Amino acid sequence: MTRIGLYPGTFDPLTYGHLDIMTRASHICDILVIGVAENSGKSPIFSLNERLEIIQEQMGLAQKKQKTNKEIIVKSFTGLLTDFAQTVEANFIIRGLRAVSDFEYEFQMASANRRLRGNLETIFLTASENQHFVASSLVKEIAKFGGDISSFVPPEVEARIKLYFSNT
Ligand code: PNS
To answer: Which atom of ligand 1 has the smallest separation from the CA of 42?
Structure first.
């Protein structure tokens, strides 16, 4: 049986924390689908297309580095995650857990998703030690005020974020 894992998120911007979860998630499934939520309610700094492009580029680089060619599909979605999970025939959802503060939100989301689709489990991967506090919102705030974000995001993403804030 082919195990399809779905890692959903807004990824605005993609951080080293996300990349860490993506790489580790790819090891526990046969096919990893990275679901990029449009999430216009969160007013993302990057368009959906840019976020898809960034993830494709970074996962390509990560796979080259690790010399793996696991099947990774990067796809956007709107609407309910449970509907998207059904469309891509995902067996489970994967989410990263950073700190205790994430727990309540993640617990609520996992429970609601299971209520909506009974057989859809959520598997949590704990963030690696050096990524425990890295959040996209924090990265955006630091970048907005000209702080150094190089340890939070890959250089290509850093360049795009800097360009964004230099134009706003
Ligand atoms: O990385 P994020 O922003 O924390 O990801 C949140 C995301 C996109 C996974 C969540 O907002 C989501 O699933 N949105 C789709 C709409 C939906 O299904 N909402 C109900 C979740 S219980």
So the answer is: 3
In the reported structure, the alpha carbon of residue 67 is separated from the centroid of ligand 1 by a whole-number distance in angstroms of: 31
The model carries a pTM of 0.96
In a domain, 24, yes or no: yes
For 158, the 3-state DSSP assignment is helix
Q: Which residue has the tokens 């990349």?
A: 19
The model's pLDDT over 12-54, given as tens digits with 9 standing for 90+, comes to 999 999 999 999 999 999 999 999 999 878 889 999 999 999 9
Ligand 1 centroid from CA 107, angstroms: 12
3-state class (DSSP) for residue 101: helix
- Residue 33: phi, psi to the nearest 5? -105, 125
CATH code for the domain in which residue 17 is found = 3.40.50.620
